[in-house]
Amino acid sequence: QAKDAGRDGVAVFDPRLRSSAHERFELHGALRRAVSEGEITVAYQPVLALAGPADAGELGPGAVVGFEALARWHRPGHGDVSPAVFIPLAEDLGLIHALGDQVLRAACAAVRTWRDETGRPLTVAVNLSALQLAEAACVDRVVAALADTGLPADALQLEITESVLMSDVEHSTGQLAALRVLGLRVAIDDFGTGYSSLAYLRDLPIDILKIDQSFTRRLPGDGEMLDLIVRLARAIGATTVVEGVETREQLETVTRLGCDEAQGYYLSRPLGADAAAAYVHALRAAPRIG
Ligand code: C2E
Ligand code: MG
Ligand code: MG
Ligand code: MG
């Protein structure tokens, strides 16, 4: 872009602007290639049960119930790019449908395999962006991914952020209802950071509230809000998953407050596909209790 006219009336280009425009252009091309060549990978963060009778063994507190699938992009020559950067970019570039489909299919296939290998009813949570939910073909894509990978619908959860749901409640409600008919579960992601209307919340077909890590960060001291959200979830018939558990004290607090499930660095970081498979196999090797 030409900035202010220079001394002799000729537009002067700011080399920094030019290089950043150039870098952006390159980044866009690299993401297009990554999606078209299937270079987006999936990391899996374990989700643990907190609730249930203490003597329920591998199904009780501390048991791994499943994973959240998180998109990863290692850009050759540049290193890892955060999903906070490339997911919005994929939305802007119209790549999110292809990218989202790749993540969904990879996650369903992996968890189908791990279920077969361990005999455990592991679940997988996949993030869905606003544009994916808005797309008319959304339900068909999910049906196809389940059919092609053989994952039972009740093993799949779809996570949608609060702001997305609330931006067009009528359409969201229709899409969520159609997805739930398949037998999968729907979670509101980053709950508590958006602008949920309580009236809508009651009417939305929602199974799970994923409590945002900003609430976990305040623990163990300040648990009032988290306590309220757990009770709100119960009032609308939803279960809770708490995100961002980083310390033992936080884990104890969310357990005491009655959250159903938890994930966070204290329990496990997101694992690459191979590490996640090893994690799952270590579960199989672990002695069965009871
Ligand atoms: P999210 O869905 O809320 O995912 C949780 C994020 O918190 C992940 O970041 C995860 O690595 C991070 N996290 C997990 N445990 C902890 C913890 O104990 N402490 C802290 N500080 N962070 C923790 P990540 O992988 O960078 O993903 C960021 C966001 O990008 C996700 O937030 C999600 O909104 C989006 N995203 C990731 N993968 C996909 C995808 O396949 N599709 C779409 N549409 N969005 C995705
Ligand atoms: Mg999520
Ligand atoms: Mg979240
Ligand atoms: Mg988040």
Automatic annotation (TrEMBL):
Q: Which residues form a coiled coil?
A: none
UniProt domain EAL: residue ranges: 24-284
According to UniProt, the name of this protein is: EAL domain-containing protein
Upper taxonomic lineage = Bacteria, Bacillati, Actinomycetota, Actinomycetes, Micrococcales
Which residues of the full-length protein are shown here?
455 to 744 of 744
